[in-house]
Amino acid sequence: MKEFSLFNWDNISIDVPTIHGNEKLFLWSNPDISQLEEILYLSLKNDFSLEERLENFQEIWIKPNITGINRPEEGKTSHPVILDKLIIVLKKFTSKKIVVADSSVIGIDTKTAAISTGIFEICEKHEIPFMDLREVPFKKVKVENHLIHSELYINEPFVDDKVFKINLAKIKTTYGSPVGMCVKNTKGIITDELKYSFHIKGLQKSICDLAETVKWDLSVIEGFPISELGQPGGNGPFGISTNPVVLDFLICLIFKVPLSDIFHIEYLAEKLQISESLLKNNKIINQIIDLFGEIRYSSNGLKILEEKFGLIMENGDACSGCVESLAKALKKSNPESLNQKKIILGAQFNDSLLHCTSKDSINCFVGN
Q1: CB neighbourhood size of 211 (10 A)
Q2: pLDDT at site 301
Q3: Are 357 and 363 a contacting pair, CB within 8 Å?
Q4: Best label site of 121, 222, 268, 361, fewest CB within 10 Å?
Q5: What are phi and psi of 132, to 5 degrees?
Q6: What gap in Å lies between CA 345 and CA 85, rounded to an integer?
Q7: pTM value surpassing 0.85
């Protein structure tokens, strides 16, 4: 594993060994927006040989993380400044067509969401198209060695070998899903029907099936700021990699999120044979890990709610969207009215748990 620092010790560029060969990884632990364009240019040019790589493609499609009607300072969506600097740097390397495209959460108009977060304004500034992925054709793709879905409907550009695909992700956590980073960001390129199916049948295993079919050429992740359980936290690291799993894996190490709580990253990292010990043996990575504390995510977030409201939660395999809705509802509730009430998350329980209602307790069944 080679390493060198672009500016000082808080920047690192390394080759991460996987079963398919080395994957490039650049991490900046203490990013400064005023230096971002320079950092991006030097890293993409020197570490990722982007100028040469782009010669083999006809178009560039950037998939940011746009969810609902949110401002960038909330930490829930891609920060427009990151997209702005990325486009500026790309245009230094190529004159090929650049497209920014995403689909918002179900029930929210994508363009309205893109305007609220500032993404649409950046596209207008650079005179490049912004596309609502609900309006981009889908292609049926077979999933080899699938866990749940034997076939998926994916936006055509993201399964086109002539398109250079950039995953622009956000560091965030929610009550319904442990972490939302590069691999999970891919969920925006499928149909709404599949999004429903992912949440009902099992989000993390479904994401693994999706990861088998889409090969990103470049993944970028930022935390300006990070979002912890829907609330803005401090600023986090900035990273680039040729593989989204490698980038997500390292971010989980930095924020001390156990891989055992994140099935899709643990599963995909094991398939790639990424070595946690090899990364932790790197002196600079260890220094970066020491900079950050633990991030709040779904498992410990639910425990916090349980303690705050005096609830008894039986944790099964509930729909992730339902768990997120439960957390929002609880925050609007009176804690005294919920004390010692039982909530069963998911219906993956035996009959004795499902028949536990009595006149002395009110039970709530959440999710499938």
Answers
A1: 22
A2: 73
A3: yes
A4: 361
A5: -80, 115
A6: 42
A7: yes
CA angle 178, 183, 186 (to 5 degrees): 115
| Cα(332)–Cα(322) distance, integer angstroms | 16
**Which pLDDT does position 316 carry in this prediction?**
58
H/E segment holding residue 345: strand 342-345
Contacts of 80 (CB under 8 A, 6+ apart): 72, 117, 118, 119, 121, 122
Looking at residue 352, its pLDDT comes to: 46
Question: Measured between alpha carbons, how far is 364 from 324 in angstroms, rounded to an integer?
Answer: 15
Q: Which residues contact 136 (CB under 8 A, 6 or more apart)?
A: 101, 155, 156, 157
**Does residue 1 surpass a pLDDT of 70?**
no
- Given a cut of 80, is residue 2 above it in pLDDT? no
Burial of 102: CB neighbours in 10 Å, binned 0-12, 13-18, 19+:
buried
Structure tokens, 132:
């609502």
Alpha helices in 202-282, H assignment, sequence order: 203-213, 244-254, 263-272, 276-280
Provide the token pair at 233.
Answer: 């936290």
Query: Alpha-carbon Rg of the chain, whole angstroms?
Result: 21
